């Protein structure tokens, strides 16, 4: 009993529309086109860019001042009772009319502006996230590429070392590293965490290299006299870059949550430096009396983690050739109409040829 593999009309039309959309485009252009069409990724990218821009410009970076009137460490008179936020919602939302005021996020017990402190915490958390992602990517790619390409004893040695790090719970080893490096500076803390968060990436890269090293283009490069390093960096790694980018993006999302957890527990960034987790740890005693001290750091933690995840989903869909974009109803209708017109033209042509053949036979 034979099974038919002929695609259904709808599937055939979807494939035709997708091929028409990417006709004449390079692989890089196709990836960019798919990524920019991913609504969730675009929203996440826009929100993350606006958040970073707000954090960098409001309180400034290093010696460069920002446009906000308060600094993260500046004391001032407490405006509202208990340091309540001066931000007021519009009347149609039940407020007294929209107003920002001098301290829209409120103040702490000694008059420090919470907006300035939260923006400084966002800067630190973003910096830690980027450093952890970069360090983990470098180590993970190096270990995974060497293990997957050379195999044998090199693979066994590197993967057993990776398994040893994986067996230790991340939060435990992160707490130990954070206790040793967190009190030095945020940069040192991020570098230390990056040295322990590369294991998953290394295993993923190893799997990609084990698969790609058996391809024909690797054999052709080896026959042409290319060295092992050239084959790794010029031939195999570019073909694994899609998986690598997606994995690093999701790792950065996990990194900011880990930094927040460690700082909240007191094993991460400590004063006088400011991070979002450290702000929650500092104000935990006021949770029941002044909850706005937790609202804003928690909100920005969630926003940053979600936007990174959305961007990672968009990159995964863009690099995955198996992902197909469902055409709109209008495009499907136009394609079906064009397909019907082509079918009618073909039938008319066949009938005309048959009529011609019949007339020729009668004349003979």
From TrEMBL:
Organism domain of life: Bacteria
GO BP annotations, alphabetical order: transmembrane transport
Domain ABC transmembrane type-1: 122-312
Ranges annotated as spanning the membrane: 41-61, 126-150, 157-177, 183-205, 236-258, 293-315
GO cellular-component term (any): plasma membrane
Protein name: ABC transporter permease
Keywords attached to this entry: Cell membrane, Membrane, Transmembrane, Transmembrane helix, Transport
Pfam hit, one: BPD_transp_1
Compartment(s) where it occurs, according to its Swiss-Prot or TrEMBL record: Cell membrane
Main localization (coarse): membrane
InterPro entries, per database record: BP-dependent_transpt_permease, MetI-like, MetI-like_sf, OppC_N
Membrane topology: Multi-pass membrane protein
Recorded family membership: Belongs to the binding-protein-dependent transport system permease family.
Coiled coil: none
Disordered, as annotated region: 330-364
Ranges annotated as biased composition (Polar residues): 355-364
